[in-house]
Amino acid sequence: MINKLARRIQELEAPIVVGLDPMLSYVPEHIIKVAYKNKGENLEGASEAIWLYNKGIIDAIYDLVPAVKPQVAMYEQFGIEGMKAYVKTLDYAKKRGLIVIGDVKRGDIGSTSTAYATGHLGKVAIGGKEFRGFDEDFITVNPYLGSDGILPFIDVCKQENKGLFILVKTSNPSSGEFQDRLIDGRPLYELVGEKVAEWGELLMGSEYSYIGAVVGATYPEMGKELRKLMPKTFILVPGYGAQGGKAEDLKHYFNNDGLGAIVNSSRGIIAAYKLARYDSYGETAYADASRQAVLDMKEDLKIAWLKR
After folding, report:
1. In 3D, which of 153, 181, 179 has the Cα closest to residue 165?
2. Which of 195, 237, 246, 245 is nearest to 215 (CA)?
3. pLDDT < 70 positions in the chain
């Protein structure tokens, strides 16, 4: 799957993943009215609105980007009905040819890790037949519990030719409370990065490992050092745009081949119609605004490639 991701980035000239992190407040009123009319003003109706909103965005951007990244919490808040919308979103994105990165941030040990990995990446046997649960192509994983928490995921990835993005240096302001702590004179995030590179050797693609890393755009100097520590690791980069990460800060996240990183934008794309730059589109053309936001991001990111 990592080979497919790298190939699609090259074909589309777009190291971009669209974060499908919908809030109900993002959904245009005309979609909400239809959903409530058909399903009721309840959890099912809200989840239907989220699904219809996602579908419109996917239809608008599927030919421009290689991947989408649904954040599971945005669906879980609506309970079982929200998770149904999550699955419909995953299935439709894959039907449209998109690679799906499930932003689930799981992390546990032993049989629990195996169960998480099976549910999101693998398949389960029932009555002599095999069934898939969520069936993402990649998922995000928290490494806090160490190798006991990561190796079960890697085992399933080997079976399914799928991958992980492991949290290394996250984009949020308080990430340094733990991640920047010095251990034997070195920050913890560097030690985690080295471990991710080590785990990555267990499952290599043609040029890059199936085991990637999450490194925020908001800490470019740290990203520069981590790129050196993880030369064969694909980096998922959150924090671009709305969180303050700029294209010129991302040049060191890429390798000389122009690969090695994929940059996430969530509300800057999916809620683009709410931004002053795109307000001429209005609510009814929200998906067209999202498409233009992707085109603008693609152009902006050329700065990172040209200056790397």
Report:
1. 153
2. 237
3. 241-245, 304-308
Please count the residues of the chain. 308
Taking CA 200 as the corner, what is the angle to CA 150 and CA 189, rounded to the nearest 5 degrees?
70
Cα–Cα distance for residue pair 298/142, rounded to 1 Å: 29
Residue that has been written with the tokens 């046997």 in this structure: 125
Residue 281, φ and ψ in degrees, nearest 5: -70, -35
- 196 neighbors 211 (Cβ within 8 angstroms): yes
Per the CB < 8 A criterion, the answer to whether 201 and 154 are in contact is no
Question: What pLDDT does 303 receive?
Answer: 72
Contact 289, 267 (CB under 8 A): no
Q: Which residues fall within 8 angstroms of residue 134, CB to CB, at 6 or more apart?
A: 86, 87, 90, 102, 119, 120
- Buried b / exposed e over 124-135, threshold 16 CB at 10 Å, is eeeeeeeeeebb
Domains, the chain, in order of start with CATH, read 2-307 (3.20.20.70)
Whether 105 is catalytic: yes
CA 171: distance to chain centroid?
A: 13
Catalytic residue chosen out of the listed positions 105, 224, 232, 246: 105
pLDDT in tens, 15-29: 999 999 999 999 999
Within 10 Å of residue 105's Cβ, how many Cβ atoms?
16
Beta bridge partners of 129: 126
pTM of the model: 0.95
Compute φ and ψ for 260, nearest 5 degrees.
100, -10
